[in-house]
Amino acid sequence: QEGGGVLEALEEMLTVARKLRIPVHISHLKAMGRDNWGVKIPRALSMLEQARQEGLEVGCDAYPYTAGSTQLIHILPPDLLTGGMEAVVKRLQDKGVRRELAERIEDGGGFDDIAKLAGWDGIRLTSLHCPEDEPLLGKSIAQEAAIEHKSPLDACCDLLIREHCQVTMIDFMASEADIAAILRDPYSSLISDATYPTEGQPHPRVYGSCTRLLEHFVRETGTLTWEQAVHKLTGAPAAALRLRGKGLLAQGADADVCVFDPEKLHERGTYQQPRQTAEGMALVLVDGQVAVRDGQLTGAKAGRVIRR
Q1: The dihedral of CA 30, 154, 78, 271: what is its sign?
Q2: pLDDT tens-digit profile of 67-116?
């Protein structure tokens, strides 16, 4: 959520939980935009702790990167996205709409204003389709604007028109201190949010989220202990999803086990070269059978679909 809206959204969900006396899990917790760093997340975590003291079952999760990833059209206000892509493209061709859009982005009110929160230099292009746009892959909107001798907004809108809005981006908007605060919460879990894109340059989280938690937030910064971090990857999410026999090394639990040397774990992917698997996992056992040995798949397929 945009930093100003995260507290209102959280209060709404906690109100529902209090009225219905049901568990609630806040996914993808973050505050976007420098003005909100160090302010909104401490208050959000305090609200969650207060709810727990009232007897509510409340958890949350976050992913361990300061950059998010989504479709470039989400820099636009929601009302400009109605009617399908043809309608959006037609609006973006209207100079009057662009003037209004520039004012709304500058004002930043009424929607998650990614262009203002991240800045044009904080938005990188990660998937493109037109051959003439291929040199822009991995570049920021600010860099595109300089190349094309346009304003960043015009460069962005023209790109969306050429690509029929089929563009994905990585946007740098979050604070590592906020991420660390969320991870330190005893009821938080880790997510990867590893969805975009299926082509072009994906977010490095597709390949490295779990390793980043262990390598960076344990070994490098000491934000968490090894035990705390492993719990956020195993027992905590299993408990949140009510998965019996998962997430713990215990008699009767499924023998799903990862074995690694803490000093050898390493996230190789970067924002510039993301398609690189992490390294350092010695063994992965699925239901007691070795599925990965020294980073190589064995071919064993012992997993089962988990049904409700």
Answers
A1: negative
A2: 988 899 999 999 999 999 999 999 999 999 999 999 999 987 778 899 99
Q: Are 36 and 45 in contact (CB under 8 A)?
A: no
DSSP 199-222: SSS--THHHHHHHHHHIIIIIIT-
User: Which residue carries 């206000």 as its tokens?
Assistant: 77
User: Contact, 154 vs 98, CB < 8 A?
Assistant: yes
| Average pLDDT of the residues in 194-220 | 88
Residue 32, token pair as written in the block: 């976007």
| Interval 47-64 mean pLDDT | 96
- Residue 171 burial (C-beta neighbours within 10 Å; 0-12, 13-18, 19+): buried
Q: At what angle do helices 95-107 and 152-162 cross, to 10 degrees?
A: 120
Global pTM exceeds 0.90: no
